[in-house]
Specification:
- Helices cover about 20% and strands about 30% of the residues.
- The chain is α+β, with helices and mostly antiparallel strands and about 280 residues long.
- It has a single domain, classed as 4-Layer Sandwich (Glutamine Phosphoribosylpyrophosphate, subunit 1, domain 1).
- Helix 4 crosses helix 5.
């Protein structure tokens, strides 16, 4: 499992300025997620990407990039590689193809048949060896064949759940004009290793995603670090953020239901964020 965040701002903005008080907490998560980092953002009509195979907590370039206005919509990812997948740049998130950018938090089992996630006749060839990239390429192929991003996410998640046993499907996907955040994880019991790795109070909220409206933008993130005034991303849903306007919508992952979210709409929040490590 990895940790990640995504953001959308009204203008190109350093991620460090969106969460100035708590970015250090996010970087501290690299102690358990040491297998490199990636930061990528839309700036105008281009994607700017920076990656490293060093731990974010030990690589000064992470903060150098975080203090740059990389773009106005982006993803930040710190990786914990699923054994035996290698640590190399081809396996590093975010993945980028044809105007799409994606990061995934979780593992999809069995790893031995991960190529079955690719659609028959796909135009895309994986560059690395991860399940996450193949999941991304399935989404990209759906979009290339004419599906809108929400439909592509729904179809791709449904196929993974039908054919595989994922530990988590939490996902960030961006197009040139939208940011999407998928929140899904299986009910308990989880895979045995999670009970060995995490204390019960940590595991209780480990798979959650949440978002916050901050000065200058919106930040969405996995747990383990503080996000002031945060609201939960509804489990089994896709949160959509429009680039520029920062309008919020929510889509059911398993039906066609969708709704607009008002910025001042009260949302569920947990005061016990410190329990997640």
């Amino acid at each position: 499992m990895c940790r990640f965040l995504a953001y959308a701002a009204s203008v190109p903005t350093p991620v460090a300025s969106l969460v100035p008080a708590t970015l250090a907490e996010f970087i501290a998560l690299a102690r358990e997620n040491p297998d490199g980092w990636g930061q990528a953002a839309w700036n105008g009509g281009e994607v700017v990407v920076e990656r490293s195979l060093r731990s974010a907590g030990e690589d000064p370039r992470f903060m150098e990039v975080a203090n740059r206005p990389l773009g106005d919509m982006g993803i930040v990812h710190v990786r914990a590689a699923t054994p035996p997948l290698p640590v190399n740049l081809d396996n590093s998130h975010p993945f980028i193809r044809d105007g799409l950018m994606m990061a995934h938090n979780g593992a999809i089992f069995p790893q031995e048949t991960m190529d079955d996630m690719l659609l028959p006749g796909t135009r895309y060839t994986p560059q690395g060896t991860t399940d996450s990239e193949r999941y991304f390429l399935a989404i990209a192929e759906e979009i290339a064949r004419g599906a809108d991003p929400v439909t592509a996410l729904r179809r791709s998640v449904a196929r993974v759940l039908e054919q595989f046993e994922p530990s988590c499907m939490n996902t960030f996907l961006t197009t040139e004009d939208r940011l999407y955040a998928v929140q899904w994880h299986p009910p308990e019991p989880y895979r045995e290793e999670y009970y060995r790795l995490f204390a019960p109070e940590v595991l209780e909220i480990y798979f959650d995603m949440r978002y916050a409206i901050v000065d200058g933008g919106i930040v969405i993130g996995s747990t383990g670090w503080t996000l002031p005034r945060w609201r939960a991303v509804t489990p089994g849903h896709i949160l959509e953020v429009s680039r520029g306007t920062l309008e919020l919508r929510e889509h059911d992952l398993f039906s066609t239901a969708s709704r607009r979210i008002d910025a001042d709409e009260p949302g569920p929040a947990r005061s016990s964020e410190a329990r997640s490590a």
